[in-house]
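Predict fold of Leucine-rich repeat-containing protein 41; 721 aa.
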Amino acid sequence: LSTQPIWRKLWDDVMKTRPPNSENITCWRKKFLETFFSNVLHGVLDTSSDWRLNDRHFSPLLHSSPHVSQLTLCNMLQGAVELTAEHNQKVLENLASSLQILKFQHLLSSDQSVRHSLVLLLHRLIHHGSVSQVSMYSWPVPDTVLLVLILSMSAGFWRSGNALAYHSSPCDLCREEDKAQSQESAQERAERSCSDERERSDGENQKASPRAPEEADAEVNRCGADACLNSVLSGLRSPPLQNQACEEGSSKVGCGFQGGHSHCISSQLSCRSALQKTHRRPKPAVGKKRRCLRRSKGPYADPEDLYDFVFTVAREDNSGLLDKSSATEGGNADSWTSSSSGSACAGHAGCKKRGSAGILPLKAARRFRSVSTLELFSIPLTGETCRTLSNLLSSWVSLENLVLSYNGLGDNIFCILSGLRALSRRSDCRLRVLRLSDVFSHMPCMELVRCILSAFPKLHTLSVSFDLKNQLEGNQPEGNPTCSEVEIPESCLEQLEIRFPREPLHTEFLLPVLKASKSLQQLSLDSATLPCSREFGLLLEALKECNPSLKKLSFHDVNLAEHQKEVLLLLQDPVLQEITFSFCRLFESSTAEFLSEIINTVKRNSSLKSLKLPGNRLGNHRLVALADVFSEDSSSALCQLDVSSNCIKPDGLLEFTKKLEGHIQQRGGQIQFTHLRLFQNWLDQDAETAQEALQRLKAVCSVVNDSWDSSQAFADYISVM
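Predicted 3D structure, encoded as tokens:
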């Protein structure tokens, strides 16, 4: 028995709205509870209006939170404030276990108290929770501080001092971890002290007058035990000694300069032992800039500290920085170079603007768990934000999926690439999926693809998409070699998607990418122009020679009207399982013979599983002819057929259905055809005939269509002629 109908009815009774994409909902229970939680959190749903929910003993958020796997926060982040309230502590604990995807949409600028709540929320859900994906959507004028706060905490960074914590002590989970680490460190010190004491005792015994072996061993054991006890007690009861160790330890670790001051991380053990056991905070010496990060100013920090954290602006010259950092042991002057700190943009010509280094002081921040997927959609990124993101990316080893879509990068793309290049040099780098899309391309698509693959041969999926070509393309910053000159090592690429901004498709530029991608299984080329008739043939030859594992090939908005021979060669390929010709004008100037050749070729191909032909002006008569693919003498294994946006009318669909039924009957019901897609066709012109055709089709296969208004179809048809 299934409870799906009950949850579906609950949706209608409680939500009183039509669920979006209802045909794709696989579990109505999960869909209802997630939407219920979100609507209650944001005040969209009034629980007092339903007698089943109007119970003071019933907490809607607490009841539904264990079932929430994705959550969207929007506008003024009211949801973050509500979730971090004291009365919702149990709700937040449930979300830390269940929530996988956290989304931000249409955010607005927020005040300090809201940012405080957001910091606590992100710390609990990401650093001590199970959130693996952070996505941000539609933020036309982003609040820079808020944006970088989300980015830095998603990357696993959190200053537990006064810059990002906004409260004087770490969370309970942090304190438990710190306590465990302190105990381990104290035990290690005690063991080392015992070992040193034994060695000294052994040396003294060798010089002293000989005694009985038993007496000597007993003395050594007694001294060793006393040394162990004294070591532990001194570690727990000597605040002055620990404070000194904290200050001395700060000279042995990396420093990040912040707003002209150096904030150094001391030994976690010595700091915590002093601050947690004494319950008091000793005042730092006058004139000392160095301080331990555990010393917070109070429950609320100066907003400028947060800005300094996310954008460390070098206000001193290089010599001053070197002088200050030379005082630290190990020569931390290197922390200002891209090689040691991982700050990818520090020495990049394209990233030096407005006198700002844009380096996030990663060494001055504590590292926590980070997300594996980051998505930024329609969020403009300034030069400073790009440099900060680049710096985060350079050490974000847990990142597996990165999506940057319509961020107005421009020449800042080189800064992002620099951070990715630094990340690729990390042996523990996990990035496998990279998707970049924007309105304008700052460099030719193929050059960008080559540049990325040369730095990231371990990528499995690469998608590069641009709408328009930048008129200033080619004006690259000095110090950036042309990516077309970069050698591409053998890559692990399995899926490559390129959307050209109406660029010519030159096979000679694509060929090195194909040769380096022996494991390529999916290739999609969108909006490319073929400069001459030979290019398409050269491309097919290259695919056959270089990519024997290619299973899916897609062309979208590529004019193939004059390439009928090459189209037929693709359709008879014995390896390809899915072919897409989307809006490729296949039948724009074709004859009836070309359609017959397509049908006969598909009938003989037993490896092709899916054929997608949307937007190719099939019309009624060509659709009816396609039914012969499933005739009795066919060896086709075609399972899916997409004929969306093909000017198909109800009478043509009904005739296609009758012909298909006849072929199925001739074959004794043995047919592999399972899916038919009919989006955006003219089925509304005769609703009764269309309904009959669809009902009969659904007895044969799964039909996916929509309620499309064809009144605009003629204008659309004329516009693409």
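Residues 551-720 form a domain with the Leucine-rich repeat, LRR (right-handed beta-alpha superhelix) fold (CATH 3.80.10.10).
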